[in-house]
Write a structure and sequence with these properties.
TIM Barrel; nine-stranded parallel sheet; 9 strands; 48% helix; 14% strand; globular
Length: 264
């Protein structure tokens, strides 16, 4: 099933889609795969797999801690693609979340080709603007990959329209300005951002940054097509006494969030 089909299915079920993130290679490549599979089994509809990078501008301290550990263990793009392949084999769309520099270093066409060969659905590129995507967009289109870009409350209407036009799969709406991380409350600006975006696109809109529990997921699901959760899943892994316990905790959180997106 591709990403668009997931959103269509969720819409037919009168709910939002649940999108879950973990960086590849933490606590190990195999341990990360086990956790992602537990999340899928518990109700995550789409998986984001982080490509560890040494200069993660948008990542808060929780994700940075896991990414740093993955890098120290030698995680590279080949391990990310192995993780994509393992998730894709479950029938769940797997997108790579990556800053542009690692993709550029790997080779844009090569990355698109290898991601598609691994069964990947596409990529989310948080620091890449559609205006600067002359290399990425043609390569992604040639391999039928989703291209997901970010909009934020500070985005102008013109910028939202331009970004949505370049997106395939869904538009990533950042609920607040700043780095990733769980928050006690999800910013009110998210609903306004989604409302503005709906005036210029029919592409599904998924909201992320700050969601950490089922109640917050239900709040977002009341106005968005998808709910994105990252730091809360990573925290499960960081605080666990063992990789197996981390996978169980991530699965338990996924079940809570999956119930939340159904309470819209």
């Amino acid at each position: 099933m591709n990403t668009s089909a997931v959103f269509e299915k969720a819409r037919a079920e009168n709910r939002a889609a649940l999108i879950g993130y973990l960086p590849a290679g933490y606590p190990s490549v195999a341990g990360g795969i086990d956790a992602l599979k537990a999340m899928v089994d518990a109700g995550v509809d789409v998986v984001e797999i982080g490509l560890p990078y040494s200069d993660p501008l948008m990542d808060g301290p929780v994700i940075q801690a896991a990414v740093d550990a993955a890098l120290r263990a030698g995680t590279d793009t080949t391990h990310v693609l192995r993780t994509v392949e393992a998730v894709a084999e479950t029938g769940t769309p797997a997108l790579v979340m990556s800053y542009w520099n690692p993709i550029d270093r790997y080779g844009t066409e090569r990355f698109a080709r290898d991601l598609a060969s691994a069964g990947g659905a596409g990529a989310i590129t948080p620091d890449l603007l559609p205006d600067d995507s002359d290399e990425w967009l043609p390569a992604a289109r040639a391999h039928d990959l989703d291209t997901v870009f970010l909009i934020a409350p500070s985005s102008t209407d013109e910028r939202i329209a331009l970004t949505a036009e370049a997106c395939r799969g869904f538009v990533y709406a950042a609920s607040t300005m700043g780095v990733t991380g769980t928050r006690d409350q999800v910013g009110d600006a998210a609903a306004g951002l989604v409302a503005r975006a709906r005036t210029v696109t029919q592409t599904p809109l998924a909201v992320g940054l700050g969601v950490s529990n089922g109640d917050q997921a239900a709040q977002i699901a009341s106005f968005a097509d998808g709910v994105i959760v990252g730091s809360a899943f990573v925290r499960c892994m960081l605080e666990a006494d063992s990789p197996a316990e981390g996978a169980r905790a991530a699965g338990k959180l996924a079940a809570d969030l999956a119930a939340g997106v159904r309470r819209r």
